[in-house]
């Protein structure tokens, strides 16, 4: 009996040792990847890789690695190797030259976890991406944007009226007033919905969209997927997604209703919006399937239309309000440069003249100011592409399936490329300086850049011009200078500024 207890104990211990050994092997298995390629990088932890270094901010981690390892290094998000690249020739290949043949796709997204966003233009791959992207590009020509401009103009005026009701002595949390503006413009331009969240903060659609953004780098789901990628599919099947499911369901059912109303109204749409343009080019699911195998087809299926509408709103809302927040902070902390921009605006629109699309698009200094703000505080501090077939670049063999990233935050502050990179100097973007496009790409670059780039710039310019026609933007007691960012590249303290009304004197 004693013998049988001992033998069963030894079997149990053998199993424990085996499981621990297998777990350990699983935990460290991928970490020879960069050694084989001869690429330097920080030492990874079992299971976590270098992921825990993001706690201090991934942009700070990227900066440290650049200083230590040079222009090419390797890191690990859990078990996933990421080749970090700051070499200009390699960037050219990744973003433009070899985009269609090798670097077509973004980071692999588990489609079940992506939920309804699985066929959004930012997620889809290869031929499907080409078809969807090709169907969307015509919506962002200057002709189309000119038609959509009145929407931005109307909401810009509402934004100013709302600000005029506030006490000019009070500091204003910038994101709190800019987020509703960008939400209203983007939602209205996408599907002609009158939300008016500028004046109605309790709008349910707004509340649900905000809720969808409440997730953290270190959320349990994200950590589990990073450490144990094979669980992503299981979590997806259990109905768990990265975004709040109830909010996503509410958002999608709202979109479905809006789309059905668009489709049934036989009269020509009173106003151009992106949803209306997509419905005009709707194709059947069968045609989409055919498009992958035979001749190229343009157009989107019913579900793809809903997905693009969602991504327009989600991507447009958050990125625009964040970019504008950083921009106003930079103008408030550089009053001399703000005065220079005000001069340009007053000359283009004398005596508070109405803002027109054509004149707005001809302004030069505002472009420089926006570019310089996006260089110092980029909306996309990293760009990523997956290598879909083995390629040799700069003497390094990049195996098929490798995720390649360009740490743009580091690129835009490289003293070898930018003089006094920590300073806010819009003039560096003047036409005489002829900046190399591979050193500055705030909206990405090449065929897979941000499809809504021109739309985003238009709605930002509208609000900045109207703001500066009416107010001076100033720092106040609550303004945190210099701005501090958390690990998620968001301000640790809400950016708070004062809007002081301008007294318009006729010269």
TrEMBL record:
Catalytic activity: an organic molecule + reduced [NADPH--hemoprotein reductase] + O2 = an alcohol + oxidized [NADPH--hemoprotein reductase] + H2O + H(+)
Reported cofactor(s): heme
GO cellular component: endoplasmic reticulum membrane
Subcellular localization(s) per the UniProt record: Endoplasmic reticulum membrane; Microsome membrane
Entry's Gene Ontology molecular function annotations: heme binding; iron ion binding; oxidoreductase activity, acting on paired donors, with incorporation or reduction of molecular oxygen, reduced flavin or flavoprotein as one donor, and incorporation of one atom of oxygen; steroid hydroxylase activity
Keyword Membrane: yes
Pfam families: p450
EC numbers on record: 1.14.14.1
Keyword annotations from UniProtKB, A to Z: Endoplasmic reticulum, Heme, Iron, Membrane, Metal-binding, Microsome, Monooxygenase, Oxidoreductase, Transmembrane, Transmembrane helix
Family according to the record: Belongs to the cytochrome P450 family.
The name this protein goes by in its record: unspecific monooxygenase
Organism, scientific name: Pygocentrus nattereri
């Amino acid at each position: 009996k004693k013998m049988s207890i001992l033998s069963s104990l030894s079997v149990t211990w053998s199993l424990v040792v085996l499981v621990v050994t297998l777990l350990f092997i699983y935990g460290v298995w991928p970490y020879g990847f960069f050694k084989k390629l001869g690429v330097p990088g920080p030492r990874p932890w079992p299971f976590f890789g270098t992921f825990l270094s993001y706690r201090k901010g991934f942009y700070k981690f990227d900066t440290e690695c650049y200083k230590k390892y040079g222009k090419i290094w390797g890191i690990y998000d859990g078990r996933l190797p990421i080749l970090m690249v700051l070499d200009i020739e390699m960037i050219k290949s990744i973003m433009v030259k070899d985009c269609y043949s090798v670097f077509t796709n973004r980071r692999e997204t588990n489609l079940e976890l992506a939920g309804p966003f699985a066929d959004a233009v930012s997620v889809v791959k290869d031929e499907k991406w080409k078809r969807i992207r090709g169907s969307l590009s015509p919506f962002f020509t200057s002709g189309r944007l000119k038609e959509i401009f009145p929407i931005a103009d109307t909401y810009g005026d509402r934004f100013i009226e709302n600000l005029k009701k506030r006490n000019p002595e009070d500091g204003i949390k910038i994101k709190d007033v800019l987020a509703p503006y960008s939400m209203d413009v983007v939602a209205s331009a996408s599907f002609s919905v009158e939300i008016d969240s500028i004046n109605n903060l309790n709008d349910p659609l707004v509340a649900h969209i905000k809720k969808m953004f409440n997730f953290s780098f270190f959320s349990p789901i994200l950590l589990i997927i990073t450490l144990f990628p094979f669980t992503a599919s299981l979590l997806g099947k259990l109905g768990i997604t990265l975004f709040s499911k109830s909010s996503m369901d509410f958002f999608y059912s709202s979109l479905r209703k809006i789309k059905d109303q668009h489709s049934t109204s036989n009269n020509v749409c009173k106003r151009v919006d992106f949803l209306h343009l997509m419905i005009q080019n709707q194709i059947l699911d069968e045609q989409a399937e055919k498009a992958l195998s035979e001749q190229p087809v343009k157009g989107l299926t019913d579900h793809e239309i809903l997905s693009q509408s969602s991504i327009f709103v989600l991507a447009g809302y958050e990125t625009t309000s964040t970019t504008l927040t950083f921009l106003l902070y930079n103008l408030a902390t550089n009053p001399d440069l703000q005065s220079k921009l005000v001069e340009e605006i007053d000359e283009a629109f004398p005596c508070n003249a109405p803002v027109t699309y054509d004149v707005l698009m001809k302004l030069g200094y505002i472009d420089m100011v926006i570019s310089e703000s996006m260089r110092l505080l980029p909306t996309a501090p990293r760009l990523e592409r997956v290598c879909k077939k083995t390629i040799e670049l700069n003497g390094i063999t990049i195996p098929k399936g490798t995720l390649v990233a360009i740490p743009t935050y580091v690129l835009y502050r490289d003293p070898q490329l930018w003089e006094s990179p920590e300073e806010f100097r819009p003039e560096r973007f003047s036409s005489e300086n002829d900046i190399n496009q591979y050193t500055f790409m705030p909206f990405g670059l090449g065929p897979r850049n941000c499809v809504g780039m021109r739309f985003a710039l238009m709605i930002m310019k509208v609000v900045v011009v109207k703001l500066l026609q009416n107010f001076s933007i100033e720092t106040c007691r609550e303004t945190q200078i210099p701005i501090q960012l958390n690990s998620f590249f968001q301000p640790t303290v809400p950016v708070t500024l004062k809007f002081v009304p301008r007294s318009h004197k006729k010269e």
